Amino acid sequence: QSVLTQPPSVSGAPGQRVTISCTGSSSNIGAGYDVHWYQQFPGTAPKFLMYGNSKRPSGVPDRFSGSKSGTSASLAITGLQAEDEADYYCQSYDSRLSASVFGGGTKLTVL
Amino acid sequence: EVQLVESGGGLVKPGGSLRLSCAASGFTFSIAWMSWVRQAPGKGLEWVGHIKSKTDGGATDYAAPVTGRFTISRDDSKNTLYLQMDSLQTGDTGVYYCATEGLDKALSVWGLGTTVTVSS
């Protein structure tokens, strides 16, 4: 069981908006630690997608956005495209564990 | 071009040892904090541990499941990160990635990974 909780799957039609939640606790997200997001296609390494809760690395489309509030964070994808179909992971730091922690991952299906 | 290339994976029996390497290029490795992350077959990402730069003290931290069995080290003269894995268990099977770690713990550059299989 992951320290950060994500829905196992989400889906949406092309052009729609989807959100992926990442719920933590007072020892990680709620303690003020940043949340970062990664995108992973089958059989490939994760790709750096979002950092510092809402900042996009160079090259990431502005269709992707992030937010954080309290003990949770969210990744939103607007104008959904078939190429967005992938697994998405959130990550933060946990002070109780003194370790970085990941969410269990969310599989995005584009219908 | 910033690049990380892992090597050293393979098949090992339970209780055995393996050392993974991660060759870095395209950035100043000596000042970089580096992490190892693994992924069991069909499962999610799991942080294994990290090592700070020597200028920041060079300390290591590990996830609970590997503490006491895994050791992370670095050779800045060779731009290489290592993961020494001892007392391997079947649950250690998976793809192991190295990644650069920012001060905010974000893992910005990832290698392609190397596969470790622990099986009798």
Overall description:
The complex is a heterodimer of chains A (111) and B (120). With 111 residues, chain A is mainly β. Chain A is 0% helix and 44% strand. Chain A contains no helices and 9 strands. In chain A, the strands form 2 sheets. In chain A, strands 1, 3, 4, 7, 8 and 9 form a 6-stranded mixed sheet that branches. In chain A, strands 2-6-5 form a 3-stranded antiparallel sheet, with no helix packed on it. In chain A, a hairpin with a 4-residue loop joins strand 7 and strand 8 (99-102). Chain A starts with 8 loop residues before the first strand and ends with a strand. The model of chain A has no long low-confidence stretch (mean pLDDT 97). Chain B is mainly β. Chain B has strands at 3-7, 10-12, 18-25, 33-39, 45-51, 60-62, 70-75, 80-85, 94-101, 107-110, 114-118. In chain B, the strands form 2 sheets. In chain B, strands 2, 4, 5, 6, 9, 10 and 11 form a 7-stranded mixed sheet that branches. Chain B has a 4-stranded antiparallel sheet with strand order 1-3-8-7, with no helix packed on it. In chain B, strand 4 and strand 5 (45-51) form a beta hairpin. Chain B is globular. Chain B starts with a strand and ends with a strand. Classes of the chains: A mainly beta (111), B mainly beta (120).
